[in-house]
Amino acid sequence: MTTDIPSISTFSGQGVSGPFDPAQNPSKAAAFWLRRDIVRGVFEPHERLKVEHLVQFYSVGHSPIREAILLMSESGLVVHEHQKGYRVAPVSLDDYDDVLSVYQRLYKLSIEMAIDLADDEWEERVVVQLHRASKAKVVEPDGEAEAREQWQRAYWEFHGALVSGCRSPLLMQLLGDIGFRLERYVNLFAEPSEGRRSADGEVSGMHRAIVEALVARDKARTLALIDDYFATSQPVRNTIKERLRSGAKAKRGRKRAA
């Protein structure tokens, strides 16, 4: 590991380093840190995950680290190689296309289910998270690390509230795992200049329009707005695909001195 991208375990903002107290639940804390650090590029694709190194890196015991690695192997972010141990999952254009397609299909399915099944409590939860997300300033992948993580948290919580109306823990788990894999591609390969073309106000406006259509239970309009929302990220996706197609290496932090 040669990057100077800070581990999420070092962040000091309230709740930013995760929802689990490492003193009370070290396995879940380590799993949360490992997931976010893989997604954020602290560990590069195909990097070996050595238990001893991670014990020192996260300052937790061997058993919690082993459990964290096993949990991540179920998410698609970590792979096991026979007689070689665990590594960070590799990246490829085919995998990106697959992850993107499945995520968008599952997201729209969850929204359709939410419109059919959700109640007033769900509506209130969505409106509250919309308000919180609207106050969060977009931070691009090359921005300050902790601020980026805070914005990402507001983003997940808003979209998590939207899909929670589907009332399917399995579907939400799948969306979460696939969504983190998709986010990793953005962090590793997207060009920040493309992301800046969508202003904060435009994103917030699209979020508000989606929520209004959801609350009105207008399924056709909601799905059309979601398609429009996905389309705004097409320039970013194009840069990711071009870098993957050309065989470009994942973007990394500045190299540490040897």
TrEMBL record:
Residues 1-14 have a biased composition (Polar residues). One of its GO terms (molecular function) is DNA binding. Residues 24-91 form the HTH gntR-type domain. It holds the Pfam family GntR. PROSITE patterns: HTH_GNTR (PS50949). Keywords: DNA-binding, Transcription, Transcription regulation. It comes from the Bacteria. Residues 1-20 are annotated as: Disordered. This is HTH gntR-type domain-containing protein. It comes from Sphingopyxis macrogoltabida.
